[in-house]
Amino acid sequence: MTSAINQPDVDRQQSASNAIPPRFPLGAGILLGLGLGGFFDGIVLHQILQWHHMLSSAGFPANNVRDLQINTLADGLFHASTYIFVVWGLFWLWRAARRPHFLWSAPLLLAGMLMGFGIFNVVEGLVNHQLLGIHHVNETVPQDQWIYWDVGFLVWGLAMLAGGWFWVHRLRAVVPLPPATTSAIRARGAQPVATQGTVLEPGDEAPEGTAGTGEAICRECGGTGRNAAGLCPSCGGDGRVTVALAGG
Fold this sequence. Notes:
Blueprint: H1 2-18, H2 26-48, H3 65-97, H4 106-131, H5 146-174, H6 181-187, E1 213-217, E2 226-227, E3 230-231, E4 240-244
Antiparallel strand pairs: 1-4, 2-3
Helix pairs in contact: 1-6, 2-3, 2-4, 4-5
């Protein structure tokens, strides 16, 4: 009997939580950036320019058939690992996109990918180039110049990582999560009364305060209230719309 009495309250709490869009899955963008960074390294530096191979400084210089075969296998295993990062990132993004009122953000995705690309370069540069020394960025130049290419690769990675990190924090400052006031009211079981004469914006599904609705970030403008033409027509410029709650 107790569980039956409390079940509506549980349903209201779950519905209220669905009204607030979850944060964009930044980790998915970072994983995609890691994978793309690996593909760039393997495709451009290993194959197209042929500046180095995975084990070309680890006792297997690619100047004979046997050592080239070993490096080709190592390059393939390296590409397989970067492929896993891309698949993982896509799966994460797909799972998050299926949640109700999910806030899509192309700039956050790009910023996360930039961070991931930078992380790849930093880890690759520190571990494979410096600590293990299994290869270097450009082994076609005299050996005493390898260090300059390695350092440049690290600086490039750090610049992308820092740029992506600052971009993410700037975007999150501009597009904050919506307040939980409406959700808190519904969690206590209160039912606001719809305001008479409320003007509906094109993105609203019902007047503000209607039972079974909640506030969500406008998906057209990402909560900024503006688009390329000026004020967002979907939310009227406040960045938020009234939507029906799941199960409401």
